[in-house]
Design a protein that fits this description.
This is Haloacid dehalogenase. This protein is α/β, with parallel strands linked by helices and 338 residues long. It is built from 9 helices and 15 strands.
Length: 338
């Protein structure tokens, strides 16, 4: 394929083979290639987002199974060490827990079906990890039990979650639910000793995320998480009748708001410091979220970045957190914009 740089977009046409495909239309019919200045419409393998490329800009259309799609500007981004701040994902990046949360989804669908032997299939994995609880449940309902509602599923999901969280916090529950990522302790302590600000960012609701963080820090004997993290941003609290809710279920990753809020509000970083800030993720939704927030993204292997086809959006991919330290501390040379 002949190399052709798309103006306004940090990918060459030759990189489409790494996971991006061309489309004639996008944005649920709002955009069409060759019409209104649209030069190309690109989508990764999972087809959850679409990139609308113009001569002078690129827009990212984030699809939604909950009926709330959104359109964002998409900019080139590059990290230049040493880092002033590192924004870290929780599930899969800091703590290995995705298997546990997919098991919770599986248990929820099993109850909806009245079939305790129900099991998710391998092809379901990209659709039941990395996004919001409601998105995961909506996918499962559409595929396995279309006669049931998301509201029913959410109630069951949180009933199961609250029970399992209580069991885990009391030293019982599912074995190996929350395992710190290899090198997490060394990684955090090194960044802290170098004066790098650390923000923890998760699409998980607070009642899900906090037990994970506490569990990991207890395992590593790291003390109070707030002594290590300078900001912790979750998707908020779940909504129950008779209590206040949040926007968390419709605006988490791949939307930019969790990463944007961690950097701007949690860490007080202005947009002028973007090149000194980097996000770390293991999921496709997280990578998109970081990039839409305007930051460069580093990937850690083990998640669905490759299978979802968003690898070209990374500045670099690593096998572990500790392998990133030379880059973060400015010991590597400058990288090109992506």
């Amino acid at each position: 394929m002949t190399e052709k740089k798309l103006p306004g977009f940090g990918l060459g046409m030759s990189q489409l083979a790494a996971g991006f495909f061309e489309q004639e239309s996008g944005g649920d019919g709002l955009f069409r290639r060759g019409v209104g200045g649209v030069a190309a419409i690109l989508t990764p393998k999972d087809r959850k987002t679409e990139f609308i490329v113009y001569e002078d800009k690129t827009l990212c259309y984030v699809k939604s199974s909950m009926g709330s799609p959104a359109l964002y500007p998409f900019h080139d981004a590059a990290f230049e060490g040493p880092a002033e701040a590192v924004l870290m994902d929780l599930d899969g990046t800091s703590v290995h827990s995705e298997g546990f949360w997919m098991w919770i989804i599986e248990q929820t669908v099993a109850r909806l079906l009245g079939n305790p032997r129900f099991a998710l299939r391998p092809e379901d994995e990209p659709h039941v990890s990395g996004h919001s609880v409601s998105e995961h449940l909506q996918y499962c309902i559409a595929k396995y039990c279309p006669q049931r509602s998301v509201e029913e599923a959410r109630q069951l999901y949180f009933d199961i979650t609250h029970y399992e969280m209580k069991e885990i916090m009391q030293g019982r529950g599912k074995p190996g639910a929350f395992v710190p990522a290899p090198g997490l302790g060394e990684f955090l302590q090194t960044l802290k000793s170098e004066g790098v600000k650390i923000g923890l960012v998760t699409s998980g609701l607070y009642e899900k995320a906090w037990p994970e963080i506490l569990s990991a820090f207890r395992t590593l004997d790291l003390g109070d998480p707030f002594g290590m993290y300078d900001a912790v941003i979750t998707a908020g609290q779940t909504f129950h009748p008779g209590q206040a809710g949040t926007l968390g279920e419709l605006s988490p990753k791949p939307h930019p708001w969790l990463y944007a809020e961690t950097a701007r509000i949690g860490l007080g970083l202005s947009t002028e410091k973007r090149r000194r800030v980097v996000g770390i993720e293991d999921s496709a939704a997280g990578v998109i979220s970081i990039r839409l927030a305007g930051f460069a993204a580093l990937g850690v292997t083990g998640g669905n970045i490759r299978s979802s086809g968003v690898l070209p959006l990374l500045q670099q991919e690593f096998g572990s957190l500790t392998e990133m330290l030379p880059l973060l501390l400015g010991e590597d040379g400058p990288a090109a914009a992506f």
